[in-house]
Design a protein that fits this description.
This protein is an alpha/beta fold and 667 residues long. The protein folds into five domains: 3-115 and 243-312, FAD/NAD(P)-binding domain (3-Layer(bba) Sandwich); 130-240, FAD/NAD(P)-binding domain; 332-446, 3-Layer(bba) Sandwich (FAD/NAD(P)-binding domain), CATH 3.50.50; 451-548, Oxidized Rhodanese, domain 1 (3-Layer(aba) Sandwich); 582-666, 3-Layer(aba) Sandwich (Oxidized Rhodanese, domain 1). Helix 1 runs parallel beside helix 8 (298-312) and helix 6 (192-204) crosses helix 17. The chain binds flavin-adenine dinucleotide. InterPro entries: FAD-bd_OxRdtase (IPR050260), FAD/NAD-bd_sf (IPR036188), FAD/NAD-binding_dom (IPR023753), FAD/NAD-linked_Rdtase_dimer_sf (IPR016156), Pyr_nucl-diS_OxRdtase_dimer (IPR004099), Rhodanese-like_dom (IPR001763), Rhodanese-like_dom_sf (IPR036873).
Length: 667
């Protein structure tokens, strides 16, 4: 009879035990866990501290008793394995409560020991008000500290996903929080512009973000940074990474791999044929480039646990590798990454490139549309998707999963472009952001739509003697924030001014998202300009990159960050039609865009009457039917409609001013 012995009882271990039982009703299955709990939801710990999960017991998915009852698996908690005797097929374990030692025999052993948070070697790191979060016990300590000591300020050391989830949790518990990150930006595994989206969200919620700096000392109410700053900190949360738990395996003479994890083959078998391993402690192949990596995440741990169990029972299931899909929600913002980042792909010598699009997550006309951002990273020659990143308030997770599927199955951008994604107005758009990203990548590969990433701009500018930067957005957008030194020429004005544009000087174009920028590129290339390049993702990407990493070779005005609160959303009082009397005005200019669009900038003294209000008759424009009325909108389409509506009401002198840029240049 097989004796399956599992060391570690959380994600990989508990999954392996349950799978082993499903595969073999007769095997003897035993699970040894050093801690007091098995199968708890460590990913849920920050949300309990935040108050999002109201009951601690919801985090405990199984108890030793329920596991035995449900699966017939004998579970020993508080039982730490201290030695493995490979030859005898026996492990020795020590009970942490009574100190007793016990031997357990196995025919097949599965190691699922996970990892532990790294502890920095800085003065004060062991003080009582300094925590890390890994177990239910850690969570209780933090929760008790918050309840009993009512700290007002906190510093979170490390801006990775656990660190940021804890930032949110502590803000929700009413603390003023700072996050300190040694790398250039938080979420260092992401590209700067993706991280910039998260950075802006953190700042919106009042979080102090300190990057490219490290904590050098922890005092009772503050921490010191290596840049000389001192931050108030009634409590400190350390979250600087995870190291695999390997001592036992090393002592047993099991091979360690090049990425610093326990070496396993594709059957998740260690260098000893009767010992399998899964989860945070192992190194596995990256599914995209085949390199050895450690990807300490719950998804891979669960899948590896299943496969290790299957193979321990004689199966031949090959693990295909992990792709590193990880996603974080920070307050309301969601960002994720999958496959290789561009940095990683280039660093491993791949011929990689990337494009970015920002598009509404569902149709713009259906209420509640939010921008979702997609970066697709692909091989320049073959177009095979290598990875990608997404960001947004809504819909970022869905696109990330599509990118993960594309990268895992080695789809090309052209294949991605042709996929039909779920669409109805409240759900998506007929041309999803994924399709758009794939089109843009195809256009870049073919040379039809040359573009450059914001992360490449500094190097590009350094490589050129002279570059013209052209902002083709409307005047209000340009006034609010721009690349300093950029010329402003709204897209509608490009054709009329085409002769004035030098043809031999390289031109960089940007608009709001990259879409109109592409149109401008085509116009200028068509007019004979030799080198015209669109800034991928436009001003949105520029803003985000500037927020996370800044630029060396130029400056830009950053858009103000709207303050948000976890208590209630702070809404600015707005009056859209301040002090405008329709009777007083000789010439009436009506902006028929929505209130939101109007507030982002409008023609001087324009009256805002959204087209819907105009059509439903909710407007009084007085009795002077012959007065001059000019209507305008964003593109000229809604205003054409408005013109018809007003004329049908009897106004005789109604002109369509067109889009906002045309309006500004005409009047
Ligand atoms: C706060 C937090 C939030 C997270 N959020 C996410 C998330 O959102 N998404 C995501 O994908 N991942 C997340 N993770 C990571 C995820 O939880 C881990 O990748 C996953 O738990 C790894 O599973 P594992 O079984 O390999 O290791 P673990 O879950 O760490 O379990 C290993 C177990 O082995 C036991 N053990 C070790 N040595 C011995 C020994 N000698 N004898 C007996 N027992 C031993 C340990 O006590 C431990 O309980 C999060 C982790 C934490 C801590």
């Amino acid at each position: 009879m097989e004796k399956i012995l599992i060391i570690g009882g959380v994600a990989a271990g508990a999954t392996a035990a349950a799978k082993a039982r499903r595969l073999s009703p007769e095997a003897q299955i035993t699970m040894l866990e050093a801690g007091p709990d098995i199968s708890f939801a460590n990913c849920g710990l920050p949300y309990y501290i935040a108050g999002d999960i109201d009951s601690r017991s919801k985090l405990i998915l199984q108890s030793p008793e329920s596991f035995d009852e449900q699966y017939g698996v004998k579970v020993f908690t508080n039982t730490q394995v201290i030695a493995i005797n490979k030859e005898e097929h026996v492990v020795k374990a020590k009970n942490s409560q009574n100190g007793s030692e016990q031997n357990f025999e196995y025919t097949k052993l599965i190691l699922a020991q996970g990892g532990l948070p790294l502890q920095p070697d800085i003065p004060g790191a062991k003080a009582d008000h300094v925590f890390s979060l890994w177990t239910l016990n850690d969570m209780d300590k933090i929760d008790n500290h918050l309840k009993n000591n009512a700290p007002k300020t906190a510093v979170v050391v490390g801006g990775g996903f656990i660190g940021l989830e804890m930032v949110e949790a502590l803000v929700k518990r009413g603390l003023k929080v700072h996050v300190v990150e040694k790398m250039q930006h938080v979420m260092s595994i992401m590209e700067a512009e993706t991280a910039g989206f998260i950075t802006r969200e953190l700042k919106a919620f009042g979080v102090g973000v300190h990057t490219e700096t490290a904590v050098t000392k922890i005092d009772s109410n503050s921490v010191e940074l290596d840049n000389g700053k001192k931050l108030d900190a009634d409590m400190v949360l350390l979250s600087i990474g995870v190291r695999p738990t390997l001592q036992l395996a090393k002592d047993a003479g099991l091979a360690i791999g090049e990425a610093g994890g326990l070496l396993v083959n594709d059957k998740l078998q260690t260098s000893d044929t009767d010992i399998f391993a899964a989860g945070d402690m192992v190194e596995i192949e990256h599914r995209v480039n085949g390199k050895k990596v450690r990807i300490p995440l719950a998804g891979p741990a669960n899948r590896q646990g299943r496969i290790a169990a299957e193979n321990a029972l004689g199966g031949q299931h090959s693990y295909k590798g992990a792709i590193g899909t990880s996603v974080v929600r920070v307050f309301e913002a969601v960002a994720g990454t999958t496959g290789l980042s561009l940095k990683q792909a280039l660093a491993t010598g791949m011929n990689a490139d990337a494009v970015v699009v920002h598009k509404e997550h569902h149709t713009a006309y259906y209420p509640g549309a939010e921008t979702v951002s997609v970066m697709v990273i692909y091989d320049k020659e073959t177009g095979v998707v290598l990875g990608g990143q997404t960001a947004g308030y809504k819909g970022a997770d869905k696109r990330l999963d599509v990118l993960a599927t594309a990268a895992a199955t080695k789809l090309t951008v052209s294949e991605l472009a042709d996929i039909d994604f779920a669409y109805s107005p409240p759900i998506g758009t007929a041309n999803d952001a994924m399709n758009m990203a794939a089109y843009v990548a195809e256009n870049k590969m073919s040379g039809y739509g040359p573009s450059i990433l914001v992360s490449e701009l500094d190097a590009y500018l350094e490589s050129k003697q002279q570059v013209i930067v052209l902002d083709v957005r409307d005047v209000f957008a340009h006034q609010k924030s721009k690349l300093n030194g950029a010329y402003h020429l709204p897209l509608e004005m490009l054709q009329p001014n085409i002769e004035r544009i030098p043809k031999d000087v390289p031109i960089l174009i940007y608009d709001e998202t990259g879409k109109k920028g592409h149109q401008a590129v085509r116009t200028l290339l068509g007019a004979g300009c030799k080198e015209v390049i669109n800034i991928s993702g436009g001003h949105t990407s520029l803003q985000r990159h500037a927020a996370a990493a800044g630029f060396k070779n130029f400056s830009m005005t950053l858009l103000p960050i709207e303050k948000k609160s976890t208590q209630e959303k702070v809404l600015e009082e707005t009056e859209t039609n301040k002090n405008v009397s329709t009777e007083e005005l000789e010439r009436l200019v009506i902006d028929v865009r929505t209130k939101g669009e109007f507030m982002s900038g409008a023609f001087p003294n324009a009256l805002n009457i959204p087209l819907d209000d105009m059509m439903s008759g909710q407007v009084d424009l007085g009795d002077n039917m012959d007065r001059e009325i000019i209507v305008y909108c964003a593109s000229g389409a809604r205003s054409a409609y408005a013109q018809q509506v007003l004329m049908s009401k009897g106004f005789t002198n109604v002109k369509n001013g067109g889009g906002i840029s045309a309006m500004m240049s005409r009047y």
